[in-house]
Write a structure and sequence with these properties.
The structure is a single chain. With 571 residues, the chain is α/β, with parallel strands linked by helices. The protein has one domain: 3-Layer(aba) Sandwich (Rossmann fold). It contains 17 helices and 18 strands. The protein has an 11-stranded mixed beta sheet, with helices on both faces. A 3-stranded mixed beta sheet has the order 3-4-7, with no helix packed on it. The protein is globular and about 70 Å long. The two termini are 33 Å apart.
Length: 571
């Protein structure tokens, strides 16, 4: 059987990504358990090639002191004038722009981002900033780039035109379980998206991940000086959004028409940011792909995670931790099995995000959100079938232990009746689809709608050509960015892909993703109805038939037997 390559292969080839955590539990597949075939070695060689390609792009943006630069590519911002580069097809990219006044190194480690200040200097914006500190992995391309704690930068893509009208702005927040990833990943290169849709500006932002971005410290003897350490990654995102709000007009963007969009942990981020005090000043719309507030942990769970890392390092205080080098911190955090989530701390984030939505915390925002038909296919593909089945059994045992006897009976009944099950896609996989993606999606749509807000909901169904992947987690990303085929193994229908991108852009532009016959790439009107509490209409992204459907017609969610599981979040 063929193996999954690129970003999924890492899960079967290395211990760290074999310790794939799903909903906060982990299963470790040792090298003895992993069947690394010749295809696996081919993937390793391929990763070395990717690393070389990425490293060849590395450079450090420098001050321009001699006045020798293209003035037409220079944009004056609060913290400097930044000079971009233009491609032959008239797309200008500005890369590696800092959005903080001090990078989070040395005494600024585990501290809230420092706001940028006024600067009259002129700087190159030619090179992507560093990737946040993380384990270097075969399948996580951004991790193969230069890493550093001094990673808080953003990138901007715009078409070179002279139109006077301000353009809608789309701000991308990458995923990676809050522990991996980075904007340098070639999949997130927005050149193609902007070339096809020149009337929007796309920005990608970096944030601290892992123990540098989500690490509860205030319970330690000297932890009072680190009250924000548990949610620094989200605070970084907020600072980037503030920078965009104050500076994007110089690039031709409309600071009053900003959409934040993200996938997986990025999808969770864009559903959590609306709950942060003062955030609505910086964006008006949200697109959440396969991510929700379910990817959070309680304060008690966060403290337990910190204590595990402390024990691993033999540290007692933050002062002890500050003496530990970056590599050792990253390696020690592997004990968490990817249980690094944002924290429902009751201050920066509400203790119950779903209740906050139901109370109207985001009712003034437009939300577009959805998930894929077989999300767990990504993890089956990544692990390989046998390791995945072992992981699934371990995960199921831990999940059932959280439930009452009555709830266990409901879950077991669901699994017994789960449909569309093959020998490579089990009822357990269907359960995890429900717990982690589908039920949280509908709970958020329900709560946003109950509060009087707008929610457009989708369900993505096209399948990969890669064995075991099906319509797995992240499979829509190459469509959204018109980029690589890492998780698809094939090109999806061109018209289908253009329609999806056009709907994302139309939503960013107007708050309604519907397309008229004139704007739709296939010349046919596409009306996307708002989610409502009676019909619960969802836009179905079938590859050759994009259409709205009542949820009940496709029975996407088991309302009686899995919906309640969202109260357990993901740990």
């Amino acid at each position: 059987m063929k193996h999954c390559f690129s970003r999924t292969m890492a899960m079967t080839l290395t211990l760290s990504l074999a310790v794939i955590s799903f909903c906060g539990s982990s299963f470790a597949a040792s090298s003895n358990d992993t069947n690394v075939s010749g295809a696996g070695f081919e993937a390793i060689e391929s990763s070395e090639k990717v690393k070389q390609e990425l490293m060849a792009q590395y450079g450090e943006n420098k001050p321009i002191m001699d006045g020798d630069y293209d003035k037409s590519l220079a944009v004056k911002c609060v913290n400097g004038t930044f000079v971009g580069r233009k491609t032959d097809d008239n797309i200008i990219a500005y890369k590696g722009i800092p959005f903080v006044g001090q990078q989070p190194v040395g005494e600024y480690r585990w501290k809230a981002p420092v706001e940028y200040g006024a600067d009259d200097g002129i700087y190159e914006a030619y090179y992507n900033g560093k990737t946040p500190c993380q384990k270097e992995e075969v399948g996580e391309k951004a991790s193969l780039y230069v890493q550093g704690e001094d990673c808080l930068h953003l990138n901007i893509w715009k078409a070179d035109d002279t139109g006077a009208e301000k353009k809608p702005v789309m701000v991308w927040i990458h995923g990676g379980a809050f522990e991996m990833g980075g904007t340098v990943d070639p999949l997130y290169e927005a050149h193609n998206l902007v070339r096809e849709n020149p009337y929007v500006i796309v920005v990608s932002i970096e944030y601290r991940v892992g123990v540098f971005g989500f690490f509860h410290l205030s319970h330690l003897p000297d932890g009072d000086d680190y009250p924000d350490a548990q949610n620094l990654g989200l605070m970084d995102q907020m600072m980037a959004l503030k920078w965009i709000h104050e500076n994007i007009e110089g690039f031709g963007g409309d600071p009053e028409n900003v959409t934040i969009f993200g996938e997986s942990a990025g999808g969770a981020s864009v559903t959590l940011l609306p709950l942060v005090e003062g955030s609505h000043e910086y964006f008006q719309r949200v697109i959440a792909q396969s991510g929700s507030p379910v990817f959070t942990r309680s304060t008690e769970e966060a403290i337990a995670c910190t204590d595990e890392v402390m024990d691993k390092l033999g540290c007692k205080t933050v002062a002890d931790l500050q003496k530990v080098d970056v590599e050792d911190l990253v390696n020690a955090s592997g004990v968490l099995g990817l249980r690094v989530w944002a924290e429902r701390d009751g201050s920066f984030l509400p203790a119950d995000p779903y209740e906050a939505y139901a109370d109207g915390a985001a009712k003034d925002l437009d939300i577009l959100q959805g998930c894929n038909k077989d999300e767990m296919g990504y993890f089956i593909c990544g692990f390989g079938l046998e390791p995945y089945n072992a992981f699934a059994a371990d995960r199921l045992e831990k999940k059932l232990a959280q439930l009452t006897e009555e709830e266990k009976a409901l879950v077991e009944s669901y699994m017994k009746d789960a449909g569309d099950v093959t020998e490579t896609y089990t009822s357990t996989s269907r359960l995890f689809d429900q717990i982690t993606f589908i039920a949280p999606l509908f709970r958020l749509s329900e709560n946003q709608t109950m509060a009087g807000g707008k929610s457009y909901t989708y369900f993505f169904t096209p399948e990969s050509d890669i064995p075991l992947m099906r319509s797995g987690h992240s499979i829509e990303l190459p469509v959204v960015f018109d980029r690589e085929k890492d998780t698809t193994g094939r090109d999806f229908d061109e018209t289908f892909s253009k329609i999806l991108r056009k709907m994302w852009v139309q939503f960013a532009k107007t708050g309604d993703p519907s397309l008229t016959a004139d704007t739709s790439p296939d010349g046919k009107e596409k009306v996307w109805p708002l989610y409502d509490l009676k019909d619960r209409q969802v836009m179905i992204f079938d590859e050759f038939d994009i259409h709205p459907e009542k949820e009940s017609e496709r029975a996407i969610l088991d309302w009686d037997r899995t919906y309640f599981l969202t109260k357990y979040y993901c740990i």
